[in-house]
Amino acid sequence: MDLRGYLRAIRKHWLMVVGALAIGLSVAGLVALTTTPTYSSSVTFFVNTPSDTIAGSAQGDTFGQKRVNSYVQLITTSSLVNMVATELGDGMSPAEIGATISAKGDLNTVLLTATITDTSPERSLRIATAVSTEFVKLVSGIETGQSATPSTVRLEVVDGPALDPSPVEPRVGRDIGLGLLVGLIIGIGLAILRDVLDTSLRTEEDLQKVAGVPVMGTIFFDEQASKNPVILGDTRQSIRSEAFRQLRTNLQFVNAAAPVRTLVVTSSVSGEGKSTTATNIAISFADAGQKVLLIEGDLRRPRVADYLGIEGSVGLTNVLIGQVAIAEVLQSWGGSTLTVLASGSIPPNPSEMLGSAGMIELLESLKGSFDLIVIDTPPVLPVTDAAILATYADGAIVVARHGSTKRLQLAASIKSLRAVDARILGCVLNMAPTKGADAYGYGYGYGYYQSDDHVGSRSKLDPMVVSSQAPDGPRHADQSELDHRPSLVTTPSRGGNES
User: Fold this and answer.
1) Up-side HSE of residue 349: CA atoms within 13 Å toward CB?
2) What are the φ and ψ backbone dihedral angles of 232, each rounded to 5 degrees?
3) Do 299 and 385 meet the contact criterion of CB atoms below 8 Å apart?
4) pLDDT tens digits for range 143-189
5) How far is CA 359 from CA 308, 313, 317, 352, 417, in A?
6) Residue 9 neighbours by CB under 8 Å, 6+ apart
7) Distance between CA 367 and CA 363 in Å, rounded?
8) Among residues 412, 404, 415, 381, which one has the least CA distance to residue 201?
């Protein structure tokens, strides 16, 4: 992932980053509020090594620096804290006094600083004062020992004892800054991790890389699609409608010498929008003046008849079992050149019916009457129906839903279709967002509008668009096809099985 990818991940998951910042700020504030304030007093000693007792000042400094290292350890020993406890006489035990004392030696110097930290500023200063006198006595006694000769080391107080009036803990500004920094780092890390672990398809590049076939088109998400799943009326001028017209153009140029006459539209799993895609592909080709037949080949959860507002209880399955003639169930739609063959009664054996000799003969007989036959099929992974029909068709396209279809799912679908030598024309990225970090900005500014509530200029409309309306209007359906009917029904008609 490059820098642009990191920034996109942060932008996409900005709520996670803000949440981590808020948690970091809250924790820092809670720590600041619950921490008991502590104060510190300090005293600095100078380790004096007179040059007349040590051979040369350089050797004296080296000797003094070594002594400082020893005194750092000595200042916290029981010898000193007992002396300080006796000096104070306020009831504090040596252990309590020892817990307040710390010391450090400044690097490459002969200075030693003792720091006394306590919740009471007055007591901190008293302990520091006692340390400043008692430690000098302790060092002098140790260095002199039993000898009458004066000590070669003399400890002098050069600074303090002094009390810092501001508490050393908590430091509100530092704690809040640290909390925000930690929260920001965690938030950014989680945002990037979530993006890295996300195996869904989000770009055309991902789609083409996984599938190994061209991306035929990108269909944009439209909030109005749940109410108007098919492109008709005012929705014909939306950015989503233009995307279907672009998809139509791409399909026409797949092989100009041998144009596709039979097209299978499928997906990896349910809910990816393959039925709405198949329906709108058929409508867009009909708008261009071609004679199109749309076959509802999903015999498990048919949706096309619902979208177009036509009768779907009698259709393909009834023709295949010889109940009716094909001419009796073909339905013209909207006064255009689009004809629809509904699924008919839902059978108990869809795969067998679609793979039967009667289905092959039916498709062959219909090819002479239409310029294009579009077949909506079930998803590839759950059942074999799509793979069966793809072997008879001139080509198939696989619909993938942005942010939903997984890479492994698409790869498995392509593998299944190739296993039966199906001709895969390409893929379609469905429900691509027009806002946010994954937004696709194509199409804006060319006279189209995004939804029914924002109608734009009509001066640049596609001249091939013909307004048409289904006799009864389209039934409301969800763009993602999430509202499915049961997968397998054995009743003779589907009248009571629509969800």
Assistant:
1) 6
2) -155, 165
3) yes
4) 776 555 666 678 889 998 999 998 988 888 888 999 999 999 999 99
5) 23, 18, 9, 10, 19
6) 1, 191, 192, 194, 195, 196, 437
7) 6
8) 404
Q: Which residues are registered as beta bridge partners of 102?
A: 115
Two tokens, residue 379: 């998803």
CA dihedral 246, 247, 250, 251 (to 10 degrees): -140
The order of strands in the sheet holding 395-401 is: 215-220, 424-432, 395-401, 262-267, 372-376, 292-296, 338-341, 331-333
Instruction: Give the pLDDT confidence score for residue 135 in this predicted structure.
Output: 92
**Integer Cα distance of 156 and 137 in angstroms:** 10
Which tokens hold the place of 170?
């908590």
**Cβ distance 154 to 136 under 8 Å?**
no
Residue whose entry in the numeric block shows the structure tokens 């006489």: 89
* DSSP string of 75-134, one letter each residue: TTSHHHHHHHHHHH-SS--HHHHHHHEEEEE-TTSSEEEEEEEESSHHHHHHHHHHHHHH
What is the Cα–Cα distance from 387 to 377, expressed in whole angstroms?
9
Alpha-carbon gap, residue 282 to 280, rounded angstroms: 5
For residue 332, the cross-strand partners are 339
The dihedrals phi and psi of 461, each to the nearest 5 degrees, come to -75, 155
Q: What percent of the chain has pLDDT over 90?
A: 54
Is 0.85 surpassed by the pTM of this model? no
Q: Which amino acid is at 266?
A: T
Query: How far, in Å, are 31, 113, 214, 294, 420 from residue 48 at the CA level?
Result: 43, 14, 84, 102, 94
Phi-psi region of 89 (alpha: psi -120 to 50; beta: other; left: phi over 0): left
